[in-house]
Design a protein that fits this description.
171 residues; mainly alpha
Amino acid sequence: MMALFGTYYWKNNQYGACKEWYRNKMLYNIGAYQYKRKIKKKRYLFLQKQIFMVSDECTLLKQFKSGEREAFDRLFKMYAPQLGYFCLRLVRQEDAEEIVQETFIKLWETRDKIKVELNFNTYITTIAKNLIYDMFRKKLVEQRYYQKFQSLIQEQLAVENELFRKNLQEV
C-alpha cells in the first residue's frame, strides 16, 4: 500500500512527503548494501584468521604435546579468556577461575592423549564442562550432608531441651 502511494505521487510530480519517503528508502537501501559488504568483508577476514589459527594451532599443539612450556603458555593465553567466559555462564567468578586453572592442569597432565587433528577448542571446553559437573556433584553431596547434620543437631537440641524441662519440673 505504501509503495503504491509513493509511486503515484512521485509519477504525478506531487512532491511533499513522498519525496522524503523515496529519499529515505534509497538511503536505507544504500546503507543496507554497504552494511552487507562490511559483513562479507568481516566474514572473509574471520575465515582467513581461522585458517591461519588452524595451521598455527597444529604446530602449537605438536610442541605442547612434546612438553614445551612456551607452547603451553601460548595456549593458555589463547584459550583462557574464552574458557573463562564459558565457565562464567555456568558458575560464579571464583569457581570459574578455579575451573579454568584445573582445566589447564588436567590438560598438562594428559597432554600425551591430545589428538592434534581434532578441534582443540571443543576438547578443552569438554574438560571444563566435566569439571563443572564434578563441582556441582560435590556441592550437592556437601549440601546433603549439611542438611543431615543440621537435622541431627536440631534433634539433639530438642532432646536436651526436653531433658532440661523435666529437670526443672522435678526441682
